[in-house]
Amino acid sequence: MQDRFSFFPATADRLTDIEAVFDDCSSGRNCRCAYWYLPNADYKAGWGEGNRSWFRSLITQSRPPGILACNEDEPAGWCGVAPRTVFDRLRRSKPFAPVDDRPVWSINCFIVRKPFRRQGFSRLLLKHAVEFARANGAECLEAYPVDQAARASNGAELYPGTLSMFLDAGFVEVTRRLPARPIVRLECR
């Protein structure tokens, strides 16, 4: 499967492709990853066009906020990955409060377009997100996946990824403050 896809830093020249990925997801089209970056009131007030406009300004900054995957010329998926310090929600969250004072990068969002779902594509996105973070100086990666075995509902949103996917990629659980949402880490050096 991997040879069918190309992976790119999420930069302004790829905005049309990134928006195609977001627009193929009912929550993604309105969220645009603003959930992680903005205070809750701003995120909710921007739901839809406000968050779309906010994301367009985010993507023009010097550090790409994630990676884009394409299948030939067709946009296929997104993974949000950046230094933890840029995410307002993580600074304010008790369940996802810092484990320690190490500088870590966070992987917090996966969106896969419908034609590419249920093929293990999120795992491939994760692999390339790790490579992207390493190439940009990350010493440690952190994520907040869903533990499907501990989840009461099968309809849980899986945008943060699944625990099994991260464990299979070498991440280890470092703490769990919510029953179905552990914090996992991967050493990058």
Automatic annotation (TrEMBL):
InterPro entries reported in the protein's UniProt record: Acyl_CoA_acyltransferase, GNAT_dom
Q: What PROSITE patterns does the record tag this protein with?
A: GNAT (PS51186)
Under CDD domains, the record lists: NAT_SF (cd04301)
Could you name the domain of life of the organism this protein comes from? Bacteria
Q: Which residues form the N-acetyltransferase domain?
A: 16-189
State the name under which the record lists this protein. N-acetyltransferase
